[in-house]
Amino acid sequence: MTNVAAKPARRPSGRRAGGNQTSVWWAVAFIAPATIGLVALYVWPFLSTLIKSFQDVPAFGPATFVGVDNYTALLSDGEVWEAFGNSALYTVIVLLGIPLAVVLAALIEQAGRGRTIYRVLFFLPVVTLPVAIGMVWRFIYNGDFGLLNYVLSWFGIDGQYWVADARFTIYAFAVVGIWMGLGINLIILGAGLQAIPKAVYEASALDGAGRIRQFFRITVPLLTPSIFFVTILTVIAALQMFDLIFIMLRSVNNTALGDSKTIVYLFYEKAFVQFDQGYGAAIAIVLLIAIMIATALQFRLQKSWVFYG
Amino acid sequence: MAESVPRRSHPRRKPISSWPIHAVLIVAAVIMVVPFVWQILSVFKTTSEVTRIPPTIIPADFSVHSFETFFSTVPFWSMFAVSTGSLVLRVVGQVTVAALAGYAFARMPFRGSNVLFGLFIAMLMVPSQLFLIGQYQLIRDLRLLDTLPALAIPGLFSAFGTFLMRQAFLNMPKDYEEAARLDGANPFQVFWHVMLPMARPMLAALTVLTGLYSWNDLLWPLIVSPSGENRPLPVGLAGLQGQFGTDYPTLMAGALVCSIPLVIVFLVLQRQFFAGIANSGLKG
């Protein structure tokens, strides 16, 4: 997918219309605003985070260079390990939403006239404020009078304190994460489905293949590039989960917060609540490394399952 | 790469057996909307009614008390103005800056432009948290904390937007450009009058994605509005929850009122939303 990015601009250098100094100045003028902004607000902040991760940065006063102290402290900090564990667990569960999205996307594709209505309904969480979503689900998950426990009681299942009990919070968040992400995944997968030539289905129907068989033999294999793309996006977004935990735990002083922090939440707390920016910066750098490893791993694994026809 | 705008006409293969499909989809759709339905029902209940066990489904006496509490304690309209203002600033700024740079990267190569573009791609791969500390310092040093520009400034520039626009221009035919140039148009005129109109689908896609991100973002506004002045909706709503942690009808009313503007925009422009997401997703 992103390999297109690496391709240099394809312009035959032979007949460069007005390939003189003037046109270079035009190009520079076009690119200057974006480049100045990129350097001031992205490249420099990135480098300063990298530098700070090797410094002790007090809330007030000058920073001092401390070598890899932040990183060694981080490695022996149980809270950091726990936060990484929580983020990893959350990510793995949210990934289960992808097979669900593939099945639903295939069904919507077949739904004929109702397609738009389904797409709109599934998309509603995407255009709802995540903060509002966190509030609504916190209410649904309430252990005493929440809707979920009420529905479970119909089936004789004992209710739980889904967000107040740290044993369940990450799972509870992940369910919301799947629910929130479904709409976008369906649109991307839907576009992928429409790119599959109809003739392939017609040929297999002539061979007597049923719908289920077609789904596994044609739809899923030909959709793997889109599934791969959705997986990459999902993992990156899930590793950066912050809003739900802020809304469902922090803003209401929930005691489960201590054991349910995600990595980005911990970063926020260190860097912007306790203003220990050196340590916060080190956490952010480790997050970057984790995302790079996760993405590289997926690109490596894709060779065994993604089908580029 | 194929255009991925949803196509209208779609030959149904076996129309006879479509009811099981609808049955599954309807069940799934109901599960999707139950939280919203529950939210709306709860808005009209009293604070004591929502804590009843077992819960009541239909509000006992349709109270609108929750809206009154919400609007009398939260400066909704000022939050709404802040959210909208920063969204407009950010979208207009980012689309303009990214389109200009994307066009030059695609069509006006100069020595070193590929290296420079590589810097954009490198930043594209870095998660946003890595920039927050430095961006915060810059905003603080410019004495812009708690202001509207603080919310929009980092979003005026986007490696992702530049990348998308470059892709859009790369895929366009060269003929129009050269014809305009022969007619004596300067590069900006070619860009503005000829190329930009052809890039409209991608401009719409970038607008949708940037707007959605700006409207929903919590972390950045939280960091740059420490005093609570000039808060956008997500930050104000989070504050409401800190204040009324157990007054669920008021919380649900706030969540509903603050979410409705974008939902309405989406319902009106749904095709642009879907095309925007599909375009940006599959182009690269």
3D structure, described in words:
The complex is a heterodimer of chains A (309) and B (284). Chain A is 70% helix and 1% strand. Chain A has 309 residues and is an all-alpha fold. Chain A has a single domain (70-305), classed as MetI-like (MetI-like fold, Orthogonal Bundle), CATH 1.10.3720.10. A two-stranded antiparallel ribbon of chain A has the order 1-2. In chain A, a hairpin with a 7-residue loop joins strand 1 and strand 2. The longest helix of chain A is centred in the N-terminal third of the chain and has 32 residues, at 21-52. Chain B is mainly α and 284 residues long. Chain B has two domains: 17-63, no CATH class; 77-283, MetI-like (MetI-like fold), CATH 1.10.3720. In chain B, helix 1 (19-43) crosses helix 13 (248-268). Chain B is globular, with a radius of gyration of 24 Å. Helices cover 69% and strands 0% of the residues of chain B. Chain B has 14 helices and no strands. The longest helix of chain B has 32 residues, at 76-107. The interface between A and B is large, with 110 and 118 residues. Chain B: Belongs to the binding-protein-dependent transport system permease family. Chain B: Keywords: Cell membrane, Membrane, Transmembrane, Transmembrane helix, Transport. Chain B: It is found in: Cell membrane. Chain B: It is a multi-pass membrane protein. Chain B: Residues 80-269 form the ABC transmembrane type-1 domain.
The greatest interface here is: A-B, 110 and 118 residues
Any idea what the radius of gyration of chain A is? 24 Å
**Rg on CA atoms of chain B, Å:** 24 Å
Described by strand count, sense and barrel closure, the largest sheet of chain A is: 2 strands, antiparallel
Q: Beta-strand percentage of chain A? A: under 5%
**CATH-level-2 architecture of the largest domain in chain B:** Orthogonal Bundle
The structural class of chain B is mainly alpha
Number of helices of chain A: 15
Q: CATH homologous superfamily of the largest domain in chain B, by name?
A: MetI-like
Percent helix range of chain B: 55-70%
The outline of chain A comes out as: globular
How many structural domains does the protein architecture of chain B include? 2
Looking at the structure, the CATH topology of chain A is: MetI-like fold
- Provide the helix percentage of chain A: over 70%
Order of helices and strands of chain A: HHEEHHHHHHHHHHHHH
Number of strands of chain A: 2
Major sheet size, sense and barrel closure of chain B: none
CATH class of the largest domain in chain B: Mainly Alpha
CATH topology name of the largest domain in chain B, in short, is: MetI-like fold
- The global form of chain B is globular
